[in-house]
Amino acid sequence: MPAMEPALIQVFAGPSVHAPFPAVMAQFRPLPDPGLSAGQLATALTRYLTPALMVRMTLPLQDGSFAAVVAAVANALQDCFGANGFEALVQRGSDGMVRVLIGYADPTAASLALQTALDVASGFFGQLAGRQVDAAGLTAQLQRTAAQMALRQPDPLARALHRAARRRGIPVTVVAPGSRVWLFGQGSAGMQSFEAASHLDSLTGSGLGRNKVHSNQLVQALGFPGVQHRIADSLGAARRLARELGFPVVLKPVAGGQGRGVTAGVSDEAALDTAYAAALQAGRGEVLVERHVPGEDHRLVVIGGRLAWVVRRSPPQLAGDGQHTVAELLAMENQRRATLPAADIASVPLVPDAEMHAMLSAQGWTAESRPPAGASIRLRRIASISRGGTLADCTAAVHPDIRDMAEAIARAFHLDAIGIDFMTPDIGRSWREVECAVLEVNSTPGFSSDTRADTILDMRFPPGGCAGRIPAVVLIGADAAALESVAAALGRRGLRVGRVDGTQGFLGTAIRHRGEAALPARVRALLLDPGCEALVIGASAEEIDRHGFPLDRCDLALTAAGVALSGPMSRLLAACASRVLPAAEAVDWSGPAADALLDEIMCLRTPRATPSMT
After folding, report:
1. At 264, which helix (H) or strand (E)?
2. Are 478 and 560 within 8 A, CB to CB?
C-alpha cells in the first residue's frame, strides 16, 4: 500500500462554500478502501483503537472508506471527554481528492484532532494491508491529543451550554484558548461565561462564597437562617467543639467545594477523628465543625436575579435484589448512569473508596454481600452530586418565602449565577416556620441536563430577542468610502460601530492591530469587545473563499459594483444574510432610504445592561 500524501488542513471561521457551519477541513487523496463493509470495518477498529476512544465513535460508519474512518475518529477525539454534538461532512471530488470537514469549539483543538485522525486511519489501513504499525507511537500520540482536548475543549457544563446555544442560534466564541471562558453572543450583546457563571458575577461575591465562614456570616446578617459552626485548628479542638455543639456534627474544610472532605452524620469521637483527617487533607489547614441540621438537602439556583430551579439532593444508594453482590450492584448502577442522555454532566460514577467502605461496614455490608430484595444500601452520607448523589426536581413546590430568600441572597452576594445549599424538612413550608439552614453558597452552580442549560440561556437571552447578536452588515468588494458610509448610518443611531476593511479593524476611529491581520482575526477582535454595538465588515470574495463567511450570519450583505460572485458564493451569501442586496440596488447611506432599510432588516438594540437586582 502506498504511503499517504500529506493532507491540507484549513480552518473556516464561519460557514463556507464547503460546509454550512464553521469547520476545520482536511483535503487529501485517500488510501485505497480495504473492501470491507462498514460493519466489518467497525469490528476491526475495536481491535485497533483504545476502548476509551472506541466508546466515543459514532457507529455504524457512513461506509467502509478511509474518509469515513477519518471523520469518525476526528469527532471521537473531540468528544473524548463528552459529547459536543459537532457535525461532520465527507465530500469526494471528481479529481479523486476527498474533503473531511468537522465542526469545532476551538479550531486549534479540532485541527489537532483531524491530523491525529488522519494518522490513526493511515496506520489502521496500513495494518489491514499487512504493514507493521508502531502501536506504542500511536498510543503516545493519542494520549498527547487527549491532553490537548482536555485543555482546550469545553468542560461538561460548557458543552451543554454550547449545545443549547446552537439550538437557539446564539453564537459562541472562545475567549482565550484553555481558559474555559466562552463568549455567548457578540460585542455589547454578549456575555462571557465560565460554566454557569458569567461576567456579571462579582469578584467579592465569589470570594465570599468560597469561604464557608464568611458566606455564613453574610447569610445570617441578612436575617436568614445559617448554620452553627466553629473553626478547629487541631484534632483536640475539633473534639471539644463537637461536644459543645452536640453530636451528630458535620466536618468540612473552611474553603473548597464539590463535597470534597465533607463528612456528615459524625456521631462519636472515633468517627470524628477520621472525618477530621479527611477535611484536613481536602482543605487548607482549617476545619469547620458544624452542628447537624435535620431535613433534606436542596439546591436553590438563581440566575439573573430570579429563582431558576430547585432540586432535592439525596446521597447515592443501591437496592438489593437477593441475587447480586454489592460490588455487582455498584457496577450495574454505574453502567446505567453511563447510558443516560446527559451522562457527561449528570452521572458521576460511583467509585469505591475508604468513605464508601466505611459506610457499607456501618450497615453490616461488604462488597461481597448479597443484600436481600428491597434492602437499601446507602453508599455515602452527603448528597453532593459530584460525589454521586441523585436529584429530584421540586421547583413547583417551593414556598414563596424560600424563593424570596434565595433571590435576596443572590442580590446581596452580587452574583448573577448562584447555587444555595439549603437544608429543610419541607421545601413547601416557609423558612420562618421550621428548623432549617442555608448550608453553603456556590458561585458556579452546577446543573444536570441540557434542559437546565436551556433555562440558563433563556434567562440570559430571552426568546424573541436578538440571541446575543449585534447589527451586522457585510460588504463584498466594497471600498473604504462605502464601509464608512454604512458605519456612519449605524452611528447616527447612537451605536458605537466596529468596522473591518481589507487590512485592519476599527472601533470608532481607533485601530485594532499594529499591522495587517487576517479576516477572522480582524472580526474576532471586535466581537470580543463589549464596546462594539454594531459591525460593518468589508471582505473580498477571495477572503471569504479562503476563511469562510466572517460571521455565522448577518443582517445585510451587499456586493459592490463590478463584483461577480460564483454560484456557490452567491448561495453562501443567501444562506448567511437575512437580506442580500446586489450591486444594482445601490443605497444612499446618508438619506432616509438607508434608515428605512435599517429599520426593516435589523434587530437594533442597546448594549446589555446589568439586570436589575430588585
Report:
1. strand 263-266
2. yes
Backbone dihedral angles phi then psi of residue 164, each to the nearest 5 degrees? -65, -40
Q: Is residue 268 within 8 Å of residue 247, measured between CB atoms?
A: yes
Q: Treating both helix axes as pointing N-terminal to C-terminal, what angle do 66-78 and 38-48 enclose, rounded to 10 degrees?
A: 50
- Tens of pLDDT, residue by residue over 111-145, are 999 999 999 999 999 999 888 888 889 889 999 99
- Dihedral sign from CA coordinates of 277, 376, 310, 445: positive
Task: Tell me the angle at which helices 38-48 and 107-128 cross, rounded to the nearest 10 degrees.
Answer: 100
Residue 73: CB atoms within 10 Å? 26
Cell output for 310: 430547585
Distance of alpha carbon 571 from alpha carbon 351, whole angstroms? 53
> What φ, ψ does residue 317 adopt, rounded to 5°?
-150, 165
- The Cβ-side half-sphere exposure at 260, using a 13 Å CA radius, reads 10
Distance, in Å, from the CA atom of 343 to the CA atom of 249, rounded to the nearest integer, reads: 33
**Cα 21–chain centre separation:** 19
Q: pLDDT digit string (tens) for 180-197?
A: 999 999 999 999 999 999
pTM: 0.88
**Domains (range + CATH), the chain:** 8-152 (no CATH), 157-198 (no CATH), 228-292 (3.30.1490.20), 472-601 (3.40.50)
